[in-house]
Write a structure and sequence with these properties.
11 helices, alpha/beta, 5-stranded parallel beta sheet, 5-stranded mixed barrel, single chain, OB fold (Dihydrolipoamide Acetyltransferase, E2P)
């Protein structure tokens, strides 16, 4: 016979209770009694009806949106486990709503509060939509009017985009798994720029797949930004809160996904005008620079010409000083043989009776040699002296 300790049995009971899917996610209605708070902020109470009662605990009652009082009819959500210290089975509560509010609405509020606390709705984590998407994924029913509307709007506004449909049921038991699989398939491609998750309007029951926690986490984990276009203007789902962008209708989601071709054309025209203006300004600046360069080069050329002109005039003066004409102007004469035109530079080149040609500064005349005397010093003696 096997004997067990109390702790072993209570632990065993705890494992059984916490492994039960029904008890792990349960809503219980009843009347509140024995409500009391602790200094640590926890709330303890009992839920009872005509036949039975169950102990309840809610950790951190600041999370409550209502004041829980004895005698209040409520619906509480939580999971069933055992408090091993006392051996009491109890409901660990995470949400309480007054009786009269629909169960689906209460579940919506519970999940919304839970995911918001986890940060899935945080605006800072939401990604901007691509300005010019090339490929757009669509998660919706393949046979509904929603797909037709989205296709028409995008093809009219921005025909450059390619649409990739990931078909799925958007209502009923298979909808949750279908939506998750569709998101996984689109993200697995690696080339989708943005995803539209959409369905038409309906009751809260019709839209309930988009309030499922697993769908919300699939949208949150999407590699591509997600636009939620579920229901009509007044319909809100968990998918709307977790998506990167919420659209009031599927048609509005299509409009958010792409720019209008007319706006793109206007923007392109403005870019072209700005580029033309910039190019024109650059051309004008180039022309001005060219003018400045031309002026500077002209000045340099003029300076070079002026300097070289001065040098040329200096050379001319030097040449003039060496010119025989300059020598003639100073009173000298050029004597040449009349017979052969050779310049006579020595008396040995002439004899008495030879005809000579004499060139002076203002003309030429002929003469005849009547005599010759050798020696310049002897010749100079015939001139008067200026020395005293």
């Amino acid at each position: 016979m096997q004997v067990y300790s109390v702790a072993r049995i209570t632990g065993y009971i705890r494992d059984i209770l916490e492994s039960d899917a029904l008890l792990a996610d349960v809503w219980i209605s009843g009347e509140v009694s024995n409500a009391s708070g602790s200094s640590s902020g926890h709330l303890y109470f009992t839920l009872k009806d005509e036949a039975s009662q169950i102990r309840c605990v809610l950790f951190n009652r600041k999370r409550l949106s209502i004041d829980v009082e004895n005698g209040m009819a409520v619906v509480a959500h939580g999971h069933i486990s055992i408090y091993e210290v006392s051996g009491a089975v109890q409901l660990y509560v995470d949400m309480i709503q007054p009786t009269g509010i629909g169960v689906l609405h209460m579940e919506f509020e519970r999940l919304k509060a839970k995911l918001e606390e986890e940060g899935l709705f945080e605006p800072s984590r939401k990604r901007p939509l691509p300005e010019y998407p090339e490929k757009i994924g669509i998660v919706t029913s393949p046979g509904g009017a929603v797909l037709h509307d989205i296709t028409n709007i995008i093809s009219r506004r921005y025909p450059l985009a390619e649409l990739v449909l990931a078909p799925t049921a958007v209502q009923g038991e298979s909808a949750v798994r279908g939506i998750i699989n569709a998101l996984d398939a689109l993200n697995g491609r690696g080339d989708i720029d943005v995803i539209i998750v959409a369905r038409g309007g309906g009751s809260i029951e019709d839209l309930w797949a988009f309030n499922d926690e697993k769908v919300a986490r699939a949208i949150y984990s999407s590699r591509a930004p997600v636009i939620s276009g579920v229901g009509h203007d007044t319909d809100f789902t968990i998918a709307d809160f977790v998506a990167d962008k919420r659209a009031p209708t599927p048609s509005a989601a299509a409009e958010l996904a792409v720019p209008h071709s007319g706006e793109v054309e206007t923007r392109l025209q403005s870019y072209i005008a700005a580029m033309a203006a910039a190019l024109s300004g650059e051309i004008e600046r180039s022309r001005q620079h060219a003018d400045e360069m031309y002026t500077a080069m002209s000045h340099q050329i003029d300076n070079v010409i002026s300097i070289n002109g001065e040098k040329l005039r200096g050379q001319e003066l030097k040449l003039d000083s060496l010119s025989p004409l300059s020598t003639l102007e100073r009173g000298y004469a050029l004597v040449q043989s009349h017979a052969n035109g050779k310049v006579i530079s020595s008396i040995s080149q002439v004899e008495r009776g030879d005809t000579i040609a004499v060139t002076v500064a203002d003309g030429r005349f002929n003469g005849r040699v009547t005599g010759a005397k050798k020696g310049i010093q002897t010749w100079m003696k015939g001139f008067p002296s200026n020395r005293h």
